Amino acid sequence: MSETNQPEEPRKISLAEAMKQKLAQKKQAQADAKNNPQQRAGNEATMRSQNNKKPNNQRRRTGGS
């Protein structure tokens, strides 16, 4: 990880280059998850069920007609 020009300072890149790198990392992570379904199963266990909308009981509370 040692660079010859600037060993301690990270090199500056353009925003477009940074986005390309981030997209490449994301695609690689998706490909890894697709190739290894066992690892993905652990992530699904942390998911929670979605809350359903509670019924509106305003008429009951206020004694509406």
- Mean pLDDT across the residues is 78
Radius of gyration: 25 Å
What is the CA-CA span between the terminal residues?
Answer: 74 Å
Kindly state the percentage of residues in helix. 40-55%
Fold and architecture overview:
This protein has helices spanning 15-35, 37-45, 58-62. With 65 residues, it is mostly helical. The model has no long low-confidence stretch (mean pLDDT 78).
What's the structural blueprint in terms of helices and strands?
Elements: H1 15-35, H2 37-45, H3 58-62
Q: In a few lines, what is going on in this structure?
A:
The protein has helices at 15-35, 37-45, 58-62. It has 65 residues and is mainly α.
Features:
single chain, 65 residues
